[in-house]
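Notebook, bench 3.
Goal today: get a predicted structure for ATP-dependent 6-phosphofructokinase from Arabidopsis suecica so we can plan the truncation constructs. The sequence was checked against the plasmid map this morning, with no discrepancies at the termini. Length recorded as 444 residues. Pasting the sequence as submitted so the record is complete.
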Amino acid sequence: MAAATSIRKLPSLSGLRHRRNPLEDNPYFHPSNGFYITPSDVILAQVAYDLSAQSQSRVAYHRAGPRREIMYEPSAVKAAIVTCGGLCPGMNTVIRELVVGLWELYGVREIYGIPAGYRGFYSMEAVKLDPKAVHDWHKKGGTVLATSRGGFHLQKIVDAIHLNGYNQVYIIGGDGTMRGAVEIFKEISLRKLEVGITGIPKTVDNDVGIIDRSFGFQTAVEMAQEAISAAHVEAESAVNGIGLVKLMGRSTGHIALHATLSSRDVDCCLIPEMDFYLEGKGGLFEFLEKRLKERGHAVLVVAEGAGQEMIPRNESQKQERDESGNAVFLDVGVWFKSVLKAWWEREHPDELFTVKYIDPTYMIRAVPANATDNLYCTLLAHSAIHGVMAGYTGFVPGPINGNYAYIPLEEVAQTKNQVNTRDHKWAWVRSVTNQPDFETNVKG
């Protein structure tokens, strides 16, 4: 197999001077051969190949980790950390580990938290951070710095970064936040400012592309289990009971998919990447009626973005947008509860029927990260620090096939991680739930 490898180039700051990495003198580290990452160390984007193919190109990313030389004098660093968008388990852990990592690994003493998201750069006073201030933040849900949606005024943000003397900016947020970070990076480059910019991807939906997963996702799946278990108990305890659980996932159904596979109590899982229908042969109502006759109960899991086109809207609702510019979704769970009740009353007017609707969204978003996500957040934070100190900018740290890499910020901002309903994982979901193949039924 002849294969050419294309290494994704990372932007770097050219006006800084190379200097010895202070990890050489850190009592907690004993750098040996292989400790420092070299420019030729890369992570392949794909690890599985068809050896029978004649020629295959390979994409690679620079490996994350400490470099032998850094580009910042630690005593001259003034770092800013900001959290944007919705809540997600692990946000406080990332902040904590950025502060502790900058302080303990590299000796940085000027570290500031920007309150209330992007708007905090130009409208609020920054908070001085040190290891003592953040020592127990990883045990708390939410973000101690506070967050918000919107407030993205590019010129005001970059002006504030420049006027306050920040030369490293760590931006924690989802896909919208990453798109904003790209604009900040471009404007800073245009102004020729020596400021390192890195984005740390946060989205509980796991919809950020290229990386293996976003932090907080595994905690979300774990918490979703509790909601599904409660729905199962409610449904099983009623005559013709349906437990309906709405899980997060505007454009992707990863939480619903993984929670369904983990639970094994789910009878049907509906996600934004699939079409489905209610009435007629092979439809959801027919399936649920059969399941109720066989078992006396059913559990239905639906991602918030599933079936949005089926929900009736007035003209005002069609135009409504949130502060981030996203279309405002109607509550698919409330709609489903209504149509399920109407269906049963029409088809079985004299029979008992119960729908118990559970929406655990804010419970899931607000919890602290579990042990796996806490460890992951630490590795992300330290990877970000090593990259910025080495002079890289405009990048995102993250695991690719289990190994940490630096990915150009713009590439991450433009890529979505959607569920492939034609791969083995979705086939596994259908084998677990025995739900209809709505797509095949529609085509048939």
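The first strand starts at residue 5 and ends at 7. The chain has 15 helices and 16 strands.
Flagging this for group meeting.
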